[in-house]
UniProtKB/TrEMBL annotation:
InterPro entries noted in UniProt: T2SS_GspF_dom
GO CC annotations on file: plasma membrane
UniProt entry tagged with the keyword Transmembrane: yes
Residue ranges annotated for the Type II secretion system protein GspF domain, each copy included: 68-191
Protein name, UniProt field: Pilus assembly protein TadB
Main subcellular location of this protein, as a coarse class: membrane
TM stretches of this protein: 178-195, 202-226
Amino acid sequence: MSSALIAAAVCTACAVWMWTGPDLATTRLSRLTGGPVGPRWRSLGRLLPRTHPARRADAWRSASIELCQALSAELSAGRTPGEALTRALASVDFPDPETLRPVVAAARDGGDVPAALIAAAPPQGGEGLRRLAACWEVGVTVGAGLSALVDRVASTLRAAQAHRQDVAAQLAGPRTTAKMLAALPALGLLMAAALGMRPLTFLLGSLPGLMCLVAGVALDACGLWWTNRMAARAQS
């Protein structure tokens, strides 16, 4: 009985490990609703490992919103575009500030700011920097109102952020249900072992049982993977 309970506990631990994988919905709901994240979350985003591209993309998007807001405020204060961008970049905590050093140098020395912004923008989460580069090209080269263009970009980015959070909230229920269903087989093993049915003797002690165990674990893992894949595609 004790060995069966220990084995069942191991199966439960495996299910819990699968359950506690990266959850995009929970991550995105932890952001502020409708504005940039605070300093604590910005610092956390900078420390996130590179193996979590979705989290880093969220941190980049939030920092881009802050950059647009800070740049608009500096331009409204009467500063030149280069000086305003330099001060705005210094006031925002980006996930990877080293990549923005060429942008700071271009803004300070009168270089090609749009090209530097595009080069610094990450593939995921860099939409704000690329839109800001287009605004800079139009505002500085053509002579349009840069402050108004930056305000428009910030408004668009905030609307997109709110939409992603709304989608994440709607997907939180289905994903939680899928994870609970994935853990039910392990709980069934615990209940059967507690009743003295010795399910692990069949699962681990015979070829048909071993085949059932492998098939069950594979189907359980495939179900979790498919659910996460559908949720990720809906959020993207």
